[in-house]
């Protein structure tokens, strides 16, 4: 009986572990200028000392969202890209 864990018991533990690991890695990879409210080091300490609450706090409060490009900006960027068929050295043999 000790060796058999119910899937309903294991699944929440795995989800919590993945949340904590993801939040920790995301915090480490996030540039310092995108971190909100407290310095990055304090966020890391909070994530390590209170993994579940810290992970949820990081998800909702930890960083500024990435700036989104408008569709117009993306369209202009596509128009500015060189045409692959017109590259020099493509070997028109």
Short précis:
With 93 residues, the chain is mostly helical. It is built from four helices and no strands. The chain has a domain at 9-66.
Account of the 3D structure:
- With 93 residues, this protein is mostly helical.
- It has a domain at 9-66.
- It contains four helices and no strands.
- 9% of the residues are buried.
Number of strands: 0
- Alpha plus pi helix count: 4
Look at the helices and sheets and give the structural class.
Answer: mainly alpha
Order of helices and strands: HHHH
Question: Which features characterize this protein?
Answer:
93 residues, mainly alpha, 4 helices, flat
List the helices and strands and how they pair.
Layout: H1 7-29, H2 40-49, H3 51-61, H4 71-80
């Amino acid at each position: 009986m000790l060796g058999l864990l119910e899937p309903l018991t294991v699944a929440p533990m795995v989800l919590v572990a993945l949340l904590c690991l993801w939040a920790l890695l995301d915090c480490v990879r996030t540039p310092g200028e995108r971190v909100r409210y407290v310095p990055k080091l304090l966020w890391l300490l909070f994530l390590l000392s209170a993994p579940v609450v810290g992970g949820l706090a990081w998800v909702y409060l930890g960083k500024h969202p990435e700036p989104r490009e408008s569709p117009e900006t993306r369209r202009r960027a596509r128009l500015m890209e060189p045409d692959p068929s017109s590259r020099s050295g493509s070997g028109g043999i």
